[in-house]
Amino acid sequence: MFELATELANTSPTDPRTLTRAARDFAQKQPAFAMAAGMAALYWISQGYGYEITGCAYSMQAVPPCRPPITPVSIPKPSGRRSAS
Are the C-beta atoms of 26 and 37 separated by less than 8 Å? Predict the structure, then answer.
């Protein structure tokens, strides 16, 4: 069954997210299939299927980080005790 799944993934456009999940899920149980699924995911990404690769996705150790900087927020201090109403 894994041979058929590999053949189909290699010969027809397949969502790379599905293939990367298969690679992750079968890495221990079926390492040859996991490798084939991962390679097929890379192939279909290179052919424009799935999603667009950004600079952040390409570089896992991007410098500077690929997220907006955290801006500190000022929280006003209470001006005194509140009276119970």
Answer: yes
DSSP, res 27 = T
The DSSP symbol for 20 reads: H
Q: Given a cut of 70, is residue 59 above it in pLDDT?
A: no
Contact between 47 and 14 (Cβ < 8 Å): no
**Rounded to whole angstroms, how far apart are CA atoms 56 and 42?**
16
CB 36 within 8 A of CB 6: yes
Q: The tokens of 18 are what?
A: 């599905």
- What pLDDT is stored for residue 47 in this prediction? 87
Dihedral pair phi/psi, residue 82, rounded to 5°: -90, 140
End-to-end CA gap in the chain = 72
